[in-house]
Design goal:
This protein is mainly beta and about 120 residues long. Helices cover about 0% and strands about 55% of the residues. It is built from no helices and 11 strands. It has strands at about 5, 10-15, 20-25, 30-40, 45-50, 55-60, 65-70, 75-80, 90-100, 105-110, 110-115. Strands 2, 4, 5, 6, 9, 10 and 11 form a 7-stranded mixed β-sheet that branches. Strands 1-3-8-7 form a 4-stranded antiparallel β-sheet, with no helix packed on it. The protein is elongated, with a radius of gyration of 14 Å. The protein starts with a strand and ends with a strand.
Length: about 120
């Protein structure tokens, strides 16, 4: 069964750092990109960062150089290093494995809570 699992969320003070990790099941084929979305209170789910298997990265404007996404294509894993966290970054962070259409739909993780205290 295709699935992704996140880890690394938690509570941190403003200015601190967290590293989120995500692993897609190795049996999942056709993955062409992985990424992170977040849902903060009162807002819709939004893209944080995304990386393709070719290494092309996209970041949301609010990242402003604070976060770095990286991936290991051979292991279907993706990590998000978050530095200089702000209280506005508080929310649930979701990992996504994007698959080419012929191999099935995209797969979301269950989400991991990130809380930044002021």
């Amino acid at each position: 069964q295709a699935q992704v699992e996140e880890s690394g969320g938690g509570l941190v003070q403003a200015g601190g750092s967290l590293r989120l990790s995500c692993a897609a099941s190795r049996r999942m084929i056709g993955v062409h990109a992985m990424g992170w979305y977040r849902q903060v209170p009162g807002k819709q789910r939004e893209l944080v960062a995304r990386i393709t298997t070719d290494g092309i990265k996209n970041y949301a404007d609010f990242v402003r150089g604070r976060f770095t996404i990286s991936t290991d294509n051979m292991k279907n894993t993706v990590a998000l290093q978050m530095n200089n966290l702000e209280p506005e970054d508080t929310g649930v962070y979701y990992c996504i494995a994007e698959r080419r259409t012929a191999f099935g739909s995209n797969v979301w993780g269950q989400g991991t809570q990130v809380t930044v205290s002021s």
